[in-house]
Design goal:
Layout: E1 2-8, E2 11-17, H1 26-34, E3 44-49, E4 56-62, E5 67-68, H2 72-84, E6 92-97, E7 100-109, E8 112-119, E9 142-146, E10 149-157, E11 161-166, H3 175-183, E12 193-199, E13 204-211, E14 215-217, H4 221-233, E15 240-245, E16 248-254, E17 261-265, E18 268-274
Parallel strand pairs: 2-3, 4-6, 11-12, 13-15
Antiparallel strand pairs: 1-2, 1-18, 3-4, 4-5, 6-7, 7-8, 8-17, 9-10, 10-11, 12-13, 13-14, 15-16, 16-17
Amino acid sequence: MKFTKMQGIGNDYIYINCFEEKVQNPSELSIKLSDRHFGIGSDGIILIEPSDKADCRMDIYNADGSQAMMCGNGIRCVGKYVYERGIVKKDVLKVDTMSGVKTLYLDIEDGKVVSVTVDMGSPEFQTEKIPVTYPKDRMIGEPVVFGEAEYSVTCVSMGNPHCVLFVDDVNQVEIEKVGPMLECDGIFPHRANIEFIQVLSAEEVNMRVWERGSGETWACGTGACAAAVACAANHKTGRSVTVHLRGGDLHIKWDDKTDKVFMRGPAEFVFDGMMNV
C-alpha cells in the first residue's frame, strides 16, 4: 500500500489516498503504523476518500486507534495533497469531515500550496454540546480543581471537545502527568483535548497541547482555535491571535460578524513510501 507522510507545524500524520487504495481495519492500522519505533511513526493516519457532498472526505484515526472528528493541521495537509497530486485542482475546496463540511482557501504560488486557511466554523460553548458535565450551561473561566491544583478552565468545542487552561509558563507544565489525568477526567464523557495557554500579549500566546488519543503533539489546529476563542472570551487577547506551538505558528481569527473561526498555517510533504499490510 502506498502512503504519504505529511506534517502541519509538527502535527504529523500518515495519509492514504483512498481514491486508489482500500483500507481494512483502519483503527488497527493506525496503532501499528503510528508507533515511532516499530512503525512509520505519526500522530495517526488520515484517509483521503471520495465524497458525495464535497470535493473529498477525510477520516482521522489517532495513534491509539480511536477515531477523531476533526484535525485542523490534518485538513490543511489534505488540501495540499489533493491539489498538488491532481485530485482536485481548485483553490477553494470543500472537505467532508465527521464535524461537517469545511471550506479551505489555498494560497498557491508556482503551482504549490504554500499555506491554507480553513473555515473552522463557529465555536460551541454550551456544556452539553461540547460535551462536559458541569452545573452551568457555559464553562468560561471557571475555577476547577484537577488533582491537587486549581485551574481557570474554559471548555469549548471546535467540532471536538477542548479544555483550555491558563498557566504562567507552559514550559513548566508537567504535561505527561497532568495531560492524561485531565483528558480522562469524569467531567468529559468523551474525553477531551487539553490546551495549556500562556498569554504573551493581546496578539500572541504560547500553547502546549495534550491531544485526546495521541498524547502531547507538536501542534493542534482545533486546539489553537479553541485557545484563541477562549482567550478572547476571557478578555485576555483580541479576536486575532498568533498561537506559538512547539512545531510552529498558527494564525487564528474569530470573526465578530460571522462568529466563524479562521485558521491559517502551512502544510508540508515529508516523504512517500510503500508499506506491507
